[in-house]
From TrEMBL:
Keyword Cytoplasm: yes
Pfam families reported for this sequence: Acetyltransf_1
Gene3D superfamilies recorded: 3.40.630.30
CDD domains reported in the protein's UniProt record: NAT_SF
Key words, A-Z: Acyltransferase, Cytoplasm, Transferase
Domain N-acetyltransferase: 12-157
Family per record: Belongs to the acetyltransferase family. RimI subfamily.
Protein name: Ribosomal-protein-alanine N-acetyltransferase
Molecular function GO terms recorded: N-acetyltransferase activity
Length: 157
């Protein structure tokens, strides 16, 4: 059963991830991906301003991991991982997380944001397209199972 998230965001909040959220984040990751990140990968991103969770009724229902790196003297944002619990998909949680993460990256001086998405993940590619991400290039066999990635970018500001 899908649990709706109210349109006005009432009942759902997006906040920085905390150590206490990691078990829920890993559970969502495991339910979402065939090659999930391990717990310690998320642990390394704690404290990053772009590691955010969506919480509804006291429960973590989604997360996004994004960071900022310097490349040729410019701040580059990288959305590394985003997922929503299967029971909460289709209700705008992913859009809210992505929107908030882009705002955080912009506030940290990022001019361009990139991400990688599985070539077969049409739903994610549609979401990223709605947010102004354009395909840049294909990376053959990017994922451990041999699937190609599509690198997508978006200019901010």
């Amino acid at each position: 059963m899908t649990t709706p998230v109210p349109e006005d965001g009432e009942g759902m909040s997006i906040r920085p991830a905390e150590r206490a959220d990691l078990l829920a984040v890993v559970r969502i990751e495991n339910a979402s991906f065939s090659q999930p990140w391990p717990h310690d990968a998320f642990d390394r991103f704690l404290g990053e301003p772009g590691f955010l969770v969506a919480e509804a009724d006291g429960e973590v229902v989604g997360y996004v991991v994004a960071d900022v790196t310097q490349q040729i003297g410019r701040a580059l944002g990288h959305v590394k991982d985003i997922a929503v619990h299967p029971d909460h998909r289709g209700n705008g949680v992913g859009s809210r997380l992505l929107s908030r993460s882009l705002g955080v990256l912009a506030a940290h001086g990022v001019g361009t944001v990139k991400l990688e998405v599985r070539r077969s993940n049409d739903g994610a590619k549609r979401l990223y397209g709605k947010f102004g991400f354009d395909p840049l290039r294909r990376v053959p066999e990017y994922y451990g199972d041999g699937e190609d990635a599509i690198v997508m970018i978006r200019k901010l500001g």
